[in-house]
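Here is one chain, start to finish.
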Amino acid sequence: MATQSLTSSVVVPSDSPRVDRAALSHIPGDEGWPLIGRTFNALANPLGEAQAMTRRFGPVYRTRLLGETSVSLMGPEANEFVYMDQTKLFSSTHGWGSILGLLFPRGLMLLDFDEHRLHRRALSVAFKAGPMKSYLAQLDAGIGARVAQWRANPGEMLFYPAMKQLTLDLAATSFLGADIGPQVEALTAAFVDMVAASVAVIRSPLPGTQMARGVAGRKQIVAYFAEQIPHRRERGGDDLFSQLCQATHEDGALLSTQDIVDHMSFLTMAAHDTLTSSLTSFVYLLAANPEWQRRLREEVAGLGVPAGEPLPFEKLDAMPLTEMAFKEAMRLNPPVPSMPRRATRDFTFGGFRIPAGTLTGVNVLYTHHIPELWPEPETFDPMRFTDEAQRARHRFAYVPFGGGPHMCLGLNFAYMQAKCFTWHLLRELTVSVKSGYTPAWQMWPIPKPKDGLRVTLAPA
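Its structure:
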């Protein structure tokens, strides 16, 4: 009965306020072709499209994507205005709802304002030092075992699918616990179907469609979490799932079963897909820049951890070059290239009045390639992230994890996993690509190499 209740309570924000297109006619822009608008332009070359539209119309422009007219706000000042949102102008619920609402309803990123703040505070307990040390132990064991397999079978490989499987396995163990048992394969398959469905062209769960498979996967995940929550509350544990089962609101009340299900589904998806993208970009850039690969290998060796020993939590801060290189990879290919919002009421920005109900948002990918902020923006240069260099830039010039109240709660988990992965990979292997090889990237909705990224691994 509990499972049926959870499954039937999914609510997609289809009643989000919309604005009449005529009310946006005063904003400069180009809506493209009838019906499809500029969708194909944006999907084919999102950075080029954003740059071209900004050159033509300025940092506030009107466009039409995925069947709706929207307004883009470009640059670091726009990022600060939207992300800080001190007067509750921008709804994340109604910005993301049509994309993620059916499969990951009421995940933290899809909540707004006071409700978001309350849930974020409750979830933050799962990302404190104690639990993070436990997650690192699981990451260390899982990454170490996988890198050992790669070392035993060196040569050319498609890195993206291998990384995708690894991050999914890591999310399962560090988030759900190492003792999840034989259900792990079915659960990971369900998550794969849910993630794939979130970007499916057909948005209704018609029989035989990817969306139908995703909805079926969600039902399976809901059933598992609902059945497990009482057991996790009774016995506790250091994994993220068990931490959420013990988490409370400000009044001391435990999170509801529905809340835990929704948060676990969303957090697992976010940790898996965005980290797959970012670590794939990172590895390609190390392969294409062997001097930086050498420098990180020296940093790893300098930690002084004996062979066979796990990476100590206390050593993470001793990897500043690794963190800088990972940040630069996320600058070049931010894991979430743009952030949609919907205006809750009229507002003015850049001299234009924008009415309530307008679908709007900021463009992370564009900001990360502004030459005035990032000289030679297509060049891989981790030195952009020295303390001195960062102090000289606008604080919202670099926003791979968002900002303000919706700053990604798992950003320290991402840095921790990247450092742990680098520590294992570069101690055991060198990674290279063929001379002249530059993979083509599909940037939306989450960047990935179209060919899977062909790299060659060899013993270090």
